Structure formats: structure tokens, C-alpha cells
Amino acid sequence: MVLLRNRIKSIIKPEVIGWGIVFLGFIVRIRQYFANRSFWGDEASLAINIVSRSFIELTKPLGFHQAAPVGFLFIEKFLITVFGNHDYILRLFPLFSGILALYLIYRITLERFDFIGVFALLMFALNTWLVNFSVEFKQYGSDVMVTLLLIYLSIRCLKEKPNATDFLWLGAVGFVAIWVSHVSIFILPGIGLALAFEKFIHKKQISFVWLLSLGAAWLISFGIDYLFILRHTAADKYFYTYWLKSFLPLQAGDIFPWLENVYYKFVLIILDRTDLSAGYMVLVFAVIGGLSLLYRQRSLALIIISPFIVTLIASALQKYPLSYRFMLFLLPLALLLMAEGIGKIYQIFAKINRYVALALCSIPVLLMLVPLTQTAMGNFKIPPTIAEMKPVLAFVEENKQPGDIIYVHYRSVPAFNYYAPFFRLDTENVIIGKDRQNPQKALDLFFSDIKELQGKDRVWVILSEIPYCYDCEGDKQLFFENSLNENGSMRDRILAPNAVAYLYDFNP
């Protein structure tokens, strides 16, 4: 019996449980990757830029209203140069980032948050947004990885006797991170502040030369990046107009409603829901966790809390929008604060009654974890997709006849342009729908284009990410189908998730 009890204790060590959760998160992400869903519009738009441009051209403002760190672009360009242009190759770096982020948060929780860190690790491993962005061809997943990498390296510099190698790694990675992830500039100030706090307040033996070198290296890196790259993106009027409502307003009456709206967007990416109880749980645990961490490990608290403040300042300066995926890099920081808060609540009430303390902590934890687990397992069985262009184009390629016309709705253009060469559909008789920022005008132009196709007896109409339609209720795809039926007769069609191709005879 004693041997059995010792065996059980050895199995439930935080390290063993942690590695099990890391493996679970790895499997979930790999499953998504091998589902190999089609690029949706934003992914395809970024892919076209990388495929069609040289390394030098990628340092210039991107087309299709895209923006990404130049280091991220260079990594992706290198990958397709070496391994070939395929969507699953372009997703390799986001996948690598997602897996590395899993390992990094495991190390952070293990070293600084003891057993309660398992909660943060499990929430991180199963989070829908983090899993999806591990295979999304955008930079937001790698933003999370860079955030955790910088925090992990800074923790090494906070140990009792840091050495020059620890600071060298932090300085070098910070220098490069500025080029790979825009959000690194929100993480580095807190790290610098924490290290300065350790030296001047706690009198830790940290060389002033090391601190000065770190600051100088990061400022030089940011200065060069801003001078040659970032200032062009910052000056782009399209981005400013598009994200105007996502900047922190400076009018006093607008601040609280805006903060509340942004907060519940953040709650959505944490718990995948926005009910009132979810909002309270995140807020209570995170606030208690922040206060506890400030008392227990003030320097680590500065590193974890300061990015929220710096990001809000950047938003107030209208330099960084706060909306959904742009806040993804803050998610692991919130989970760490929540884990600290849960641990503190247990610690306080355990002095009164351990069972009461366990109930107070385990009930809300289960309320957060169970729905998240159910969603993760559902997505594991049927990976989510946004718009499946590949099966649509494969069907068109198989059934297309010489002389057929292909009409591509403007919302489908990026995905069509990226995938068309793979299906030999980019050569002739392709009509591209007119893009308009005003959805109503875009819809009117679509009907105008269809009128101009009258007299053609074989026209393929491709729609994906089914767009806005007025005077339609419910099924938008059916609205477009009925509208096309008024102008011609359908010969064939293929339906895929949020994507469709029709073959129409517009010859009366």
C-alpha cells in the first residue's frame, strides 16, 4: 500500500501532469494542421504578397490592405523558397510557434506558479483561439510565442544569480523579436522596468552595463524597424479608418463603454463565451492574481501586468487597435494572473477549511474548463473552417469546358488568386468582380456584372465568405442563388463550407 501511494504521488507531480497537457495541446494543434483547410481571404491576401514579392519587396507596404512584421514575412518567404509554395508550408511557422508557446508556458508555470499553474497550462492548451491561430497563416499565433519567449528569458534573468549568458540571450532575442512581432514592443518595457527594479530596489547584482546594453539594443532595433518599415504602416489611412473604433477614445464619456466592449471581446478569446458570469470570473481571478503576484514576486508582476498598460497607451495614441486577434498575445498573461488568483483564494480559505477552499476554487474552474474542453473536442472531431475554396476550384477544374467564363465575386478574389494556379484556372476568361468598401455598392455592382454576362451560355460564378445582401433573411447563399436564377438557368453547382461555384446559362 505504501508503495502504491508513493507511485501515485510520483505520477501526479506537476511536471508529469504538465507534460501530459503539453502533449494534449500538441495533438489538438497537429490535428488542425493536417485538416489542411483552405486559406480564407486575409490569409490568401498575405500569401499572395509573399509569393509574388522578393525579400526586398517585402520590406515595402503590402498589397491587399495587409500588414505583418517583416521578420515574419522573411521567415515565410524562406520557407516557400526552400520547400515550395503550398498553404501547408506557409502554415509551418504558425504551427511551430503554437507548439513552442505550449512548451514555454509549461516552463513558466512550472518555475513560477507551482501546481496551480496547471490550470493556466490546460486553459492555454485547449483555448479555441490559440489552437486556430496555431494553423492560421497570420502573425497572431507567433505573437503569442514571442511574448512567452521574452517572458521566459526575462525570468531567467530574475533568478538569484543571473549570468551574462542569460542577459545575452534576452538582449539578442529581444532585438530580433521586434522585427518578428509587433507586440514585442509592448512586452520589452515591462521587462526592462522589472530588471531595473531588481537592481536598484532589491540591490541584486545585475550589471548596469547589462541593463544599458539591453535598452540600447532594443531601442536601436525598434528605431531602425520604425524608420524603414513601421512608419509606413502607421501612416496608412486605410488601417487608421478601418480600426478607428478599436482605438481607445479620449473623450471621458466614451471611455467606459469602450473599455467594457473591449473587455468582453477579451473574455471571449479567453473562455469562448461572453456571459456575465464569465466576465466576473475572469475579472475577479485576474485582479486577485495581480495583487497576489505584486506581493509575492513584484518583478514578475511588472513583466506580466505592464503589457496591458502599455497596450492601452498605444491604443489611446491610435497606434494599436484592440479587437479580438490583436489581443491574443495578452491571453497567456491573463491566464497566469487568473491561475495566481485561484491559488491565492485557495490559500486564504484553506486556513479556515480546506474543503470549503477546494469548493470555492474548483467550481468556477470547472465552469470555465468544461465548456472549453467540449469545444476543443468538437473541433478535434470536425476542425472548423472559414471558407473552403479548394474543393470548389477542384470541381470547376474537373467540369470546365474550353471557352467557359469564370466570374469571381470580389470577396473570393484573394483565395481564388492564390489557389487558381494549382487548378489551372488562372489562364483565360476570368472576370474579377469589382471591390467596394461599401457593401451595398458592391452588391449593386455584382448584379451589374451579371447583367453584362447575358448571352453567355456557360458561366461559372464563384462565391466564398458569402457577402452582405440587403432584403434577404437567413440564408445569404440562397439569396445569391435565387438572384442568379432570375437571370439564367443553373446547370451545375458545388457547395462547400461558406464557398460555392455555380455553372449558369445566361443565354435567354
SSE order and pairing:
Blueprint: H1 2-11, H2 14-35, H3 41-52, H4 70-83, H5 87-90, H6 92-112, H7 117-126, H8 128-133, H9 140-157, H10 164-180, H11 184-200, H12 208-234, H13 237-242, H14 252-271, H15 276-296, H16 298-316, H17 331-350, H18 354-381, H19 389-399, E1 405-408, H20 413-419, E2 430-432, H21 439-452, E3 459-464, H22 476-485, E4 489-496, E5 499-505
Parallel strand pairs: 1-2, 1-3
Antiparallel strand pairs: 3-5, 4-5
Helix pairs in contact: 2-6, 2-7, 3-20, 4-10, 6-7, 6-9, 7-17, 7-18, 9-10, 9-11, 10-12, 11-12, 11-16, 15-16, 15-17, 17-18
- Strand neighbour order, sheet with most strands: 2-1-3-5-4
What's the story with the biggest beta sheet?
5 strands, mixed
The helix-strand sequence is: HHHHHHHHHHHHHHHHHHHEHEHEHEE
Strand content: 5-15%
Q: Strand tally, please?
A: 5
Shape: globular
Helix content, binned percent: 55-70%
The number of helical segments is 22
Taking Cα atoms only, what radius of gyration do you get, to the nearest Å?
26 Å
Report mean pLDDT, rounded to a whole number.
Answer: 91
Global structural class: mainly alpha
Number of domains: 2
Separation of termini?
Answer: 86 Å
Enumerate the spans where pLDDT stays under 50 for 5 or more consecutive residues.
1-5
